[in-house]
Amino acid sequence: MRAKISNLNAGLMRYGIREMVELTQQIAARDPQFKFIGENIGDPLEKGWEVPRFLRELLHAVVDGDQKRAFGYTHSRGDLAARIWVAENARRQAPASRLDPEHVLFANGLGGAISILYRCMGQGARILQPNPGYPAHISSESFFAGAASLGYHLDPASNWEPDLDHIEAQLRSHPEIAGILLINPNNPTGTVCRKPVLESLVDLAERHGLLLISDEVYFRLVYNGGRHVHLAELAAGRAPLVVMRGVSKDVPWPGSRCGWMEFHNLDLDDEYRRFFEVVKRPLMLEVCATTMPQAVVPQIYSHPEYPVWLEKYTRELEANANSVYDLLAAVRGLNVTRIQGAFYMLSSFDQGALNGRQSLPVKNPEARAYLEGLLALPGVPPDKRFAYYLLAATGICVVPASDFDSPYPGFRITTLDRDPRRRDATYRILAQSVTDYLASA
Ligand SMILES: Cc1ncc(COP(=O)(O)O)c(C=O)c1O
After folding, report:
1. Model confidence, pTM
2. I need a surface site. Which of 206, 218, 264, 279 has the fewest CB within 10 A?
């Protein structure tokens, strides 16, 4: 090539959840006995869930109905009927909100929205990320800023809620912080934030003139006594707020690639309004987001069968989460929290429990040699070492906590598996593997 064409910031763009898939392929290519057990990706359809029948019927009706509605372009901000529904729904959930359908922007999945949002941030303006947090936010923010991510701790001693003192400290040290991201319910911890914490966040945003971004893609999936409080209600008239939602998790329809951003409180600040105008531009360049899911979004959530389906789904997620918790809470050296939302659990190892010599037996010599080669590279975090050994030795694929920028070494699992025998078998093997690994050196 006559010129360098690779972006030199590419190293800032990492997504450990999918990186584990690549490692899996390498091990499977070497070990014919290898059997993959995916506990890395939050896709309910991979774990025995089906989309509700009424969704399939709605889609049939759209496909056989108005061709333009199903197959044509929409407005670049999204189908108007869908945006009207989003605004009405936001106002129902948060009566203090004045969300206007013109301030709702649809994107190709929430992943697409995340990328667009950070791409539009001004040079040097930073969004403080929860640590642990979701890698697509962390990586996109960092990649477009061209610098390492800035984070605030979630505190495992307080059920992984935001450490407000750490946020204050980060704001003092980094005047470039323009906003704070909240993921509620959280991926990877399954935490649902209590109202006083959210109130403090809004106070902070108001006092320091910050943008709040609230990723609420899991807001309907709440159980075990958790209660989702809408940040839009608390922030109304007080702080600029972008709420991010989508249909991937609570329908569940991850392949829809349908997510949206709600720009609340645009009247509060000129700079925030300018930012909103900037975010609209890449959407125009992309022409529009996937049309078909937008055509059915209002009907899905207002369908009389949806609440019935959601109740069944969340009750089952609660039972799954509790049975996984019971198995892992009994493991010495590992700390887990009973989750209240989403479908992930983040465990952390006791401080000092990991060292660079521990291992699990990997029977296949080629797979073992490949793995050891990877682990000999400099800078492998201790929890990644555990996750790699676990994968090669048992086929169970978890995601190291360090891939979520967690300050506490551990790993994330999903709590989705609908087959109780398979689920219990997986987590028994996992529990035993943790014990064996910790005792190995
Ligand atoms: C917190 C969070 N935000 C956004 C997304 C992306 O969702 P989508 O499938 O709409 O891109 C995910 C997916 O796992 C997520 O966990």
Report:
1. 0.96
2. 206
